[in-house]
Design brief:
The chain is α/β, with parallel strands linked by helices. 46% of the residues lie in helices and 15% in strands. The protein folds into 2 domains: 204 residues, Rossmann fold, CATH 3.40.50; 38 residues. The protein is built from 8 helices and 7 strands, in the order βαβαβαβαβαβαααβ. The protein has a 7-stranded parallel sheet with strand order 3-2-1-4-5-6-7, with helices on both faces. α1 packs across α8 and α3 runs parallel beside α4. The chain is globular, with a radius of gyration of 18 Å.
Length: 263
C-alpha cells in the first residue's frame, strides 16, 4: 500500500532507538524525509548512519537536543523549520514507589513526557493549520489510561499527553490537519530490554525467561508477549499519512489487548 508520504518532511523526537527509531525507519521507507532527535550528538549521528544503511537513498538528518530543556527546544526548532509530520515520541519511564518519587522526579517526567510535546506543537502546529495540512502524533501508552500504581509519575504524564492531544485536535476543526495518539502496550524497546537484562543478571536468571515471565504477568494481555517497536511504528506511520484523514482527535490502540475497556 502506498501511504502517499513521498516528499513529506517529518520530525520524530527521541528517535535514536526503540519505537522512535522504528517510526523514523518506517517513514523513510514510505518516502518521507525524516529528522531524528536525541540528547547525545554521537547517538544522533549513529542513528542517522544506521537509517541510511537500512533505507538506501533515504533523506535523513538529525538534531541533537534535550527536549526537556525549553532553551534547547527553541534552538532545535530554529534549525528544524516547518514540518508536515510531528511525532512526539520521546519519553522516560521507571518503576518507583509513589512515596519515593521526589518533586524533581515529577518535574523531569512532566518536562520530558508532557511539556516536550507542548513546546514542539506550539511552534510546529500553527504553520500546519495555515497550510491546511499536517499530522501531529503522540506516542503514548496504555498506562495513560490504566495508570499503574508502581509508575504513577509515568502514567500521570502519559494521561496528560493524551489530554493534550485531544485538546489540540479541536484546534484543527475544518482543516486538513489531524492530531492523534497511539496507545502502545508493553513494548520490548531498548530501554525495557536493558532493564530486563539488568534485573536478570541480579537475579541470576536468563533474560529470556524473565522476559516471558514479565509478559505473562500482564494477565489482561491478549497477545501474551511484549510487543516489538515496529508493531507500534506501523500504526504511527499510517496515522502520519494522508490515508488516515478521517481519524482525528483519536486515541488508537496498539496495546496487544491489555486494556479491557471498549473505548
Amino acid at each position: 500500500m502506498d501511504l502517499q508520504l513521498t516528499g513529506a518532511r517529518a520530525f520524530v523526537s527521541g528517535s535514536t532507538q526503540g519505537i522512535g527509531y522504528a517510526v523514523a525507519a518506517g517513514l523513510l521507507r514510505e518516502g518521507a524525509e525524516v529528522v531524528v532527535n536525541g540528547r547525545d550528538e554521537g547517538r544522533v549521528r549513529d542513528a542517522v548512519s544506521r537509517l541510511r544503511d537500512a533505507v538506501p537513498g533515504a533523506t535523513v538528518s538529525g538534531i541533537a537536543a534535550d527536549v526537556a530543556d525549553a532553551d534547547q527546544v527553541d534552538r532545535l526548532l530554529d534549525r528544524l523549520g516547518d514540518v508536515d509530520v510531528l511525532v512526539n515520541n520521546v519519553g522516560v519511564f521507571e518503576v518507583a514507589p509513589f512515596e519515593r518519587i521526589t518533586d524533581a522526579d515529577w518535574q523531569r517526567y512532566l518536562d520530558v513526557n508532557l511539556l516536550s510535546g507542548v513546546r514542539l506543537a506550539r511552534r510546529l502546529l500553527p504553520p500546519m493549520l495555515a497550510r491546511g495540512r499536517g499530522r501531529v502524533l503522540f506516542v503514548s501508552s496504555e498506562s495513560g489510561v490504566d495508570v499503574p500504581a508502581d509508575m504513577l509519575h509515568y502514567g500521570v504524564t502519559k494521561a496528560g499527553a493524551l489530554a493534550l492531544a485531544n485538546g489540540l485536535a479541536k484546534l484543527t476543526r475544518g482543516t486538513g490537519v489531524t492530531v492523534n495518539t497511539v496507545l502502545g502496550g508493553p513494548t520490548y524497546s531498548d530501554g525495557v530490554a536493558g532493564a530486563v537484562e539488568q534485573i536478570a543478571r541480579a537475579q541470576g536468571v536468563p533474560a529470556g525467561d524473565l522476559k516471558d515471565t514479565l509478559a505473562a504477568a500482564r494477565t489482561t494481555s491478549l497477545v501474551q508477549r511484549f510487543l516489538e517497536p515496529e508493531e507500534i511504528a506501523r500504526l504511527v506511520v499510517y496515522l502520519a499519512s494522508p490515508l488516515s484523514s478521517a481519524t482525528n482527535g483519536a486515541a488508537v490502540r496498539a496495546d496487544g489487548g491489555v486494556l479491557t475497556t471498549l473505548l
